[in-house]
Structures are given as structure tokens and as C-alpha cells.
Amino acid sequence: MQIGFSVENDGDVPHDKCGVVGVYSPNGDISKITFLALYALQHRGQESAGIAVGDGQNIKSHLGMGLVSQVFDESTLSNLNGYVSIGHTRYSTTGSSNIQNAQPCFSSNSGAEIALAHNGNVINALELRNELLGWGIKFRSSADSEVIAHLITNVPGENWQDRFSYVMRRLQGAFSLTLITKDSLIAARDNLGVRPLCVGTIDNGYVVASETCALDHVGAKFLRDIKPGEVILIDKTGLSTIYQQPLTNRVAHCVFEHIYIARPDSVIDNQLVYKSRMAMGRELAIEHQVDADLVISVPDSATAAAVGYAQKSGIPY
Q1: Judging by beta carbons within 10 Å of its beta carbon (0-12, 13-18, 19+), is residue 235 exposed, middle or buried?
Q2: What pLDDT shows up at residue 9?
Q3: Which residues, 6 or more positions from 136, have their beta carbon under 8 angstroms from its beta carbon?
Q4: Do 64 and 104 form a contact (C-beta atoms < 8 A)?
Q5: Exposure string for 4-27, b = 16+ CB within 10 A, e = fewer
Q6: Going by DSSP bridges, is the β-strand pair 198-202/221-225 parallel, antiparallel, or unpaired?
Q7: Is-contact 38 77, C-beta < 8 A?
Q8: Helix (H, G, I), strand (E, B) or coil at 282
Q9: Which sign, positive or negative, has the C-alpha torsion 302, 308, 313, 316?
Q10: Are 49 and 68 in contact (CB under 8 A)?
Q11: Half-sphere exposure for 174 (CA within 13 Å, toward CB)
Q12: What mean pLDDT do residues 123-144 have?
């Protein structure tokens, strides 16, 4: 018997598939909203998880190794009171898997205190790290995410718009960021839009997340994708764009999101991921015909592609 396979495999592809969340909700139970949104993004990373919350005066946090459901319980969530928060679940590609590299990461300087969550890889992180070390900055982790956090708080600028105008021109590579101050939420996406990031509305507030499935999980209404090169600020005045890299026709959305990383019920680039995978399976059947008895998906993320291949080829799934 011959069997045709539709296979997806991590292999040694250098990608970072962390999940990031940001919530601004003056009226909601913010720690539980963040937990549920993060839980919906568990597929993006299983090594560590963390949540940081701002209450207008301070930033509190809880981080741990393991799954979201293992790191948080009712007791830990009840201690995270506030109205602005971020969350992170990690799959490491830069920096080893230990608690020092768990996120959110933190940085403060000259009254600018932030907690930051990052999905992606900054390819000039070593250069920037050495530059910051020359400024006297001390690091507690080996992750490129801490480089971003310290860069944001230590660059010159009278406000967040000035700071990000500098930071967005210095960072190279892939980054989707959510970060909080004591009273506001900021989200940013790299100039090429490599990693996905979207924003939705919930009960007079906002939710930012790597994928729309997280919005669905907490009852938030999808508003829009954050544009490549855009930085948004959410505070008591609402949502505003504080920086936008001049838009060009050059974007570089990661195809691996549609192939493997994203949850099939998420919508990325206005396309349901499940439909994308089915379409790729159908195209595979056109380009690579095989004399087989069965089509089998390996692993579950390949199911939609296998179904598409089976439908187009006529080989039973």
C-alpha cells in the first residue's frame, strides 16, 4: 500500500512563535481577561508564561515556567489588579529556556518604566546590546526582547512618540510588541509586518493579540490589524497611532503562520487560516500528484492541507 502524506514539521527553521497579549480595560477583570486571551495562544509557546499589570501607580507581575494553566491560578490572578496589562507565552529561539528569559521583561530609566512582551527575532540585537552595555545598561537575560525594552527606556525623547520614532528605525528583523507603562498600553509591529498583531474592542476597552482567536476567546470584537511599521498607544483618551513608518508596497508576512504556527480558526491578513491551508493542499495536489491510497495529516496542523489535497486529488482522506 502506498500512502500520501501532508506533513508539517518545525525542523530547524529559525522562527519565534511566541504569543503576546495586551489589554486596556478600566471596567473589566483584567487579569482574567489576559489569562483567557493568553490561554487561547498556548499553541504559540509552551515553555513559560507571564502577565504584568499596571494600576496607574505600579506595575505588578507573575511569571513562571510551564503552560499558562500551570503558571496561573485563582490566587495569582487575584493579586494582579489594575486596568492595563500584557501577557506572554514563550517558545524560545533567542535565549535559553529558563526563568530569566521568561517574559514580560522589564526596564526603567528617567521615570520611564515599562513591562514588555515580544514575538519575533531582532537580527541586530547583539549590536544593540553592545551599544547599550556601553551606556552602562545591565542585562539579566540573554533574550533579544530585553534589548528592545532597554532601548525603549534609554533612548532620548520627551514622550513615547519621540522614543519610538528612534526605536523603530533602529530595530531590524521581526517584532510584534505589547508593552505597558503604569497607566497605558502600547503595541508595535515591525516595518515589514513579519509577525501578526491585531486589536479589538471589549467593554469600553481594547485587546491586542498575536491572533484573532484570542479576541474571540474573551468576547472582543476585531477592529483591525496593526499595520506594518505602526505603533499604537491606548490610554484613557482612547486609541491613537503615535508612529507610522512610511508605508511601501514591500511587506514580508511570514508564510509559516499560515502553514503551521497560527491556530486554524484565526484570521490573518483577512484570510481564515483553515482556508489558507486547504488552498495550499489543493495546490500541492496540482503540482505534485501521487499514486496513493490515503492522505494522512501529520501533525494536526496539517489536517486542513490534507483535506484540500484529498479533495483535489480524489484520494480518500
Answers
A1: middle
A2: 38
A3: none
A4: no
A5: bebebeeeeeebbbbbbbbbbbee
A6: antiparallel
A7: no
A8: helix
A9: positive
A10: yes
A11: 20
A12: 94
Output the nine-digit C-alpha cell for 85. 496589562
Task: Name residue, grid cell 552602562.
Answer: 136
Instruction: Give the relative orientation of helices 144-154 and 125-134 as an angle to the nearest 10 degrees.
Output: 50
pLDDT tens-digit readout, 80-122: 999 999 999 988 655 556 788 889 999 999 778 999 999 999 9
- Residues assigned a catalytic role: 18
DSSP strand E in the chain: where? 3-7, 19-24, 48-54, 59-65, 84-90, 105-109, 112-122, 173-180, 185-189, 198-202, 205-209, 221-225, 230-235, 238-244, 267-268, 271-272, 294-298
Element (H, E) at 286: helix 273-287
Q: In one letter, which amino acid is 207?
A: V
Rounded Cα distance, 76 and 53, in Å: 12
Q: Which residue is it, cell 556601553?
A: 134
Q: Which residue type occupies 256?
A: F
Determine the Cα–Cα distance for residues 124 and 96; give it in Å rounded to an integer.
18
The angle at the Cα of 15, spanning 10 to 20, to the nearest 5 degrees, equals: 110
